[in-house]
């Protein structure tokens, strides 16, 4: 049985400065192709045997001496023997998935996907979490690179980043595939490995070398897909390493961003700081060295979706249809009408975690085992909404007490969807037509970020409180959208409340120095910041396992995606304060 635990925490404003020079992402490779290769060599990929071996990720990386590819890939790559091939090494298994001898988790799903090459880049036609016949895993495919090496006998070499995501869940396990090909359809075996993840409860290595076929053919809409991919890459926020902060802002200790509070760098998948139009990046740790395609590494949202999806969509609805915050849950979710506890609960109460319906008032006391079995595991909407509506009884007046429930955000997503359909028509969808079309797409987010987890039935209800996925550039753009403070696409009054710009509306919260408002957390930190005489509330998004996105008052953004279950970020906030005051 699949078991999942989610405990708590869950962006257009353009970046105005050009402190980092524009990058030519599609510049020609100028290397000679003379690569000294001892691992993943031509001989290994042509004549090696499964399962091969785990290697340092540097052997999957684009080498400095890489030459432009002589071959052009467009068509379908298919693998064979996925269900039995490869090897598996478990590092952490909180819920005893493989301890119960579940061998299916130890192997890749079936792989047959269309890929298109543009220059030295290659990208998949399908993005997002792709459903499959595999009972446990779904692929997430991202873009990679293509090049020539003189030792590859006229073949071109591909490195294709990918991730596995557990069906109906949000953890992501990142890996890379590599293979050789020619225009005529000749192809080597495909070597692959997974040696890192953003997942608190399930961590493993998976690797192998499988037979493959390449079927060259014209991909439908290849020209428009290529144009869109090139625009996606060229529109990324300019990047520099975190270490460059010390040069760009003298006196800055970049290590306090890289691993705040002594966080273990090995647990950090991505970390970044965005200021003055530059995205300073780090992380990409794995158990086999640095992951070589950090721009393509996928991370999960978990409960940061409560900020971006639930909060963002509701603020957009309020802008389009004033009064959305005061709509009644009971009027739009019939499943919540059986006990009369939801008729006086507003959309605004639900996004604030103040429904008044709960079991235990203690901090995170209700966000536990029952959620795991009855909210997160079912794949159909009827089961999820029935649990969410009936699990808790009325204990307080709505809007007066904060009790955290991911189930309440699921109810809110259901209610917003019904509300939108009632206004704009039954074909409308709260994620696709409100959040994505009106908020995220104008930011230039990647196709990876155009995905949300949904129920697997005909309802296809988006989860709202978890289930998004992002590349690091998506995080930078979404965070910067909120850090700009004023956004005409959202209701400004409610955005000000979410960002703690209205002292009369701090929201509800579990502690005097922590508040929760419109899906955003906030922490009062004036005692940590020199020169701040007034209260200083820092709004942030937070996600299960160790995910933090700070929306800093000096128009900068700090984030990390980790899985050590530690939420330490004061070092980074203090260092950001040293760059430009956070005082309000």
Describe the structure.
By secondary structure, this protein is α+β, with helices and mostly antiparallel strands. The protein has 13 helices and 24 strands. The protein has helices at residues 42-47, 222-234, 245-248, 255-258, 304-320, 347-351, 369-376, 381-390, 406-424, 430-440, 472-483, 492-498, 570-579, and strands at 74-80, 87-93, 112-118, 121-124, 129-130, 137-141, 144-148, 156-166, 172-181, 190-198, 202-216, 239-241, 268-275, 278-283, 299-300, 357-358, 393-394, 469-470, 508-511, 514-517, 520-524, 537-543, 547-552, 556-562. The chain has a nine-stranded mixed sheet with strand order 12-14-13-24-23-22-21-20-19, with helices on both faces. It has an eight-stranded antiparallel β-barrel with strand order 1-3-4-7-8-9-10-11. Strand 7 and strand 8 form a beta hairpin. Helix 5 (304-320) runs parallel beside helix 9, helix 5 (304-320) packs across helix 10 (430-440) and helix 5 packs antiparallel against helix 12 (492-498). The longest helix is centred in the C-terminal third of the chain and has 19 residues, at 406-424. It is globular. It starts with 41 loop residues before the first helix and ends in a 5-residue tail after the last helix. The relative contact order is 0.14. The model is unreliable at 1-19 (pLDDT under 50).
